[in-house]
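FAQ
Q: What does a multi-component entry look like?
A: The components come first, one per line:
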Amino acid sequence: MAEIDEESHVCDAAVTLAFSVLGKRWNGMIVSSLGGGPSTFVALRRGVAGISDTVLSDRLAGLAEAGLVARTVDAGPPVTVSYALTDSGRGLLPILDQLGTWASANLEIRAR
Amino acid sequence: MAEIDEESHVCDAAVTLAFSVLGKRWNGMIVSSLGGGPSTFVALRRGVAGISDTVLSDRLAGLAEAGLVARTVDAGPPVTVSYALTDSGRGLLPILDQLGTWASANLEIRAR
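Then the predicted structure of the entire assembly, as tokens:
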């Protein structure tokens, strides 16, 4: 009856899984920022323009739970905490690069 | 003074631009679902498990504004409205496939 095949529109489970992490605002940008190497909280907050302390803290906890980011405490003194990508997180970097290339070619920068 | 190079953590502008679209929940899944070909609203809602009518409607309008999705009205009768990826939207599909492959290898499926 329908001309449109409904079966073909079921969203792929693996893509759904990817966006359970990347569909959360800021997560892709945080991973991309950490592509530059281990970072402190403050450096990350400066690198991801517009994010608040509370949200960055929440996102880092979520990315750590998902296994993309590792948090390391150096006893110091002074005590320092740093964040770095795990192997899993680093695996995203070449794909984020491709997304950036696609965006540069296809999206316009808009005022918010 | 700092051991961490702050410059290297500025999130890439192109990646930021990509996540202005993909960092919005559901958008990646909607594009992936439309990878199966043009679809009706109802078929899309079934394909993207868990999305509400209101949110799907909002996201389709946003994706159309961003140039990833085209809306076509067939005068009928009956009048039918269908949604399809543009060339720009189709350009995302191979990257979404890679994200899915990465997710399958690196993320665990969790109960919400």
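Q: Is there any commentary attached?
A: Sometimes. For this entry: The mean pLDDT of chain A is 87.
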